[in-house]
Design brief:
This protein is an alpha/beta fold. It has a single domain, classed as Formyl transferase, N-terminal domain (Rossmann fold), CATH 3.40.50. The chain has six helices and nine strands; from the N terminus they run βαβαβαβαβαββαββ. It has helices at residues 15-24, 44-51, 67-79, 97-102, 123-130, 165-189, and strands at residues 4-10, 31-38, 55-58, 85-88, 107-111, 134-141, 151-158, 192-195, 198-201. The strands form two sheets. A seven-stranded mixed sheet has the order 3-2-1-4-5-6-7, with helices on both faces. Strands 8-9 form a two-stranded antiparallel ribbon. α1 (15-24) packs parallel to α6. It is globular. This is Phosphoribosylglycinamide formyltransferase. It catalyses: N(1)-(5-phospho-beta-D-ribosyl)glycinamide + (6R)-10-formyltetrahydrofolate = N(2)-formyl-N(1)-(5-phospho-beta-D-ribosyl)glycinamide + (6S)-5,6,7,8-tetrahydrofolate + H(+).
């Protein structure tokens, strides 16, 4: 089986990256993680990747005078590994339109909310303030407009009475660790693909029933 080559961009501790690495360690997983690149030299994700035997690189955004200069070097670093797919996993940098265009249809991201609701930061606090009963996470194709690309997959979790931001974040993060490998599998095999600006998915699984809470 030919496996898709995947590079992961990270900024922090790398828990979603670790979930992808664990999934890719399975012999039937259709993608291999060939590189992890961080914009922060002290990111904990780098040590996790190194222990897994994965090549790492650092492109420190603080060393560049502009977003364009940083993105140009990040692009060069990525292309050295020749990835088929780029996964953003807690990568906390806004990418320029030119960089995104260079990886159009090949770069995906996980966001801690049920898009299109709660784009941007502080999603859990905003969900609690809004009083929603379901929250969750989304894997989507990266496009120039932040958190607005075509949706590949989503996972929902209940918002419980008494939840604070930390408790809700933990519940969503557990869902992220299950969702991202599933979405990458769909994208790497072509079971999910872009058609006229939307993601369509071929699946032999029956459609699930509604998830109702409470």
């Amino acid at each position: 089986m030919s496996r898709a080559r995947v590079a992961i961009l990270v900024s922090g501790r790398g828990s979603n990256m670790a979930a992808l690495i664990d999934a890719a360690a399975e012999p039937d997983f259709p993608a291999e993680i060939v590189a992890v690149i961080s914009n922060r030299p002290t990111a904990g994700a780098l040590a996790i990747a190194q222990r897994a035997g994965i090549a790492t690189a650092v492109v420190d955004h603080k060393a560049f005078p502009s977003r364009e200069a940083f993105d140009a070097e990040l692009d060069r670093a990525l292309r050295r590994f020749a990835p088929d797919i780029v996964c953003l996993a807690g990568f906390m940098r806004m990418l320029t339109d030119g960089f995104i265009a260079g990886w159009a249809g090949r770069m995906i991201n996980i966001h801690p909310a049920l898009l299109p609701s709660f784009k941007g930061l502080d999603t859990h606090a905003r969900a609690l303030a809004a009083g929603v009963k379901l929250h969750g996470c989304t894997v989507h194709v990266v496009t120039p407009e932040m958190d607005s690309g075509p949706i590949i997959a989503q996972a929902a979790v209940p918002v419980l009475d008494g939840d604070d931001e930390g408790a809700l974040a933990d519940r969503v993060l557990a869902a992220e660790h299950r969702l991202y490998p599933r979405a990458l599998r769909l994208w790497a095999t072509g079971a999910s693909r872009l058609v006229d600006g939307r993601v369509v998915t071929e699946s032999a699984e029956p459609a699930p029933g509604p998830y109702i809470w409470p």
